[in-house]
Amino acid sequence: MKIKQPEPFTFEAGPRAVLLLHGFTGHSADVRMMGRFLEKRGYTAHAPIYRGHGLPPEELLQATPEQWWEDVENALQHLHDLGHEEIAVAGLSLGGVLGLKLAYSEKIKAIIPMCAPMFFDNKTQLTRGFKTFAKEYKQLEGKDVATVKQEVEDLFENSADLFKQLGSFITDVKNNIDTIYTPTFVVQARKDEMINTKSADFIYDSVETDEKHITWYEESGHVITLDKEKDKLYQDVYQFLESLDWEE
């Protein structure tokens, strides 16, 4: 069975722009509904897809966190090339980590990390997430149970290096977020099954900006952008964006 590959999107509206960043093993569909919500309220929204994502799991193992960082830098530049001077960033999970790195590396308007991990003490959960993604992808390809099982096991055996790199990348960002002076809205799902939820408090406590907020969503899981409280989340993100001191 041929699987339709997801694509990046750009929803052009007003001069205010939001860069939307998806999670590990995810792709632009993670943040598409949020993008449409913001577009209808006058914000331009752009979401890239990092290398190896939205593709067979074998492709993901060929990519690196440094490449994903390059992809995010290029996505920010894409919005600049479209003429947007003021750009806020909202990122889910790994996208939140990448967004936090943007917040201390580039000039952005605001950062919204959503269920972003800061502690790499949850390798079990992350690897389980990778296994689930790989299994579901193989099933979509129409492979039989035995083949799926064997291919997922093979993939997992070859994933150690990627997870080591990912752990180092997350730790490096964690060690630098006390240099963030950008307005920050920390979003965390209470029922997050993938990350250590203490990450949210760590981010909130560590960023140096006085303009910071944190909201917990009691009924949501890790992919909060698609879960039960997504409508509340979209509205809260919009209200936060509206509270910023935009120049235009």
What does this structure look like?
This protein has nine helices and seven strands; from the N terminus they run E-E-H-E-H-H-E-H-E-H-H-H-E-H-E-H. With 248 residues, it is of the alpha/beta class. Strands 1-3-2-4-5-6-7 form a seven-stranded mixed sheet, with helices on both faces. Helix 8 links the parallel strand 6 and strand 7. Helix 5 runs antiparallel to helix 6.
Task: Write the SSE topology.
Layout: E1 9-11, E2 17-21, H1 29-40, E3 44-47, H2 57-60, H3 65-81, E4 87-92, H4 94-105, E5 110-114, H5 123-140, H6 145-157, H7 160-174, E6 184-189, H8 198-206, E7 212-217, H9 230-243
Parallel strand pairs: 2-3, 2-4, 4-5, 5-6, 6-7
Antiparallel strand pairs: 1-3
Summary tags:
9 helices; alpha/beta; seven-stranded mixed beta sheet; globular; 248 residues; 7 strands
State Rg.
Answer: 17 Å
Distance between the termini: 48 Å
Overall geometry comes to globular
H and E order: EEHEHHEHEHHHEHEH
Beta-strand segment tally: 7
Strand order of the largest sheet: 1-3-2-4-5-6-7
Which regions contain 5 or more consecutive residues with pLDDT less than 50?
none
Structural class: alpha/beta
Largest sheet: 7 strands, mixed
Q: What is the helix tally?
A: 9
Arithmetic mean of pLDDT:
93
The helix content, as a percent range, equals 40-55%
- Content of β-strand: 5-15%
Short description:
By secondary structure, the chain is an alpha/beta fold. The chain is built from nine helices and seven strands; from the N terminus they run ββαβααβαβαααβαβα.
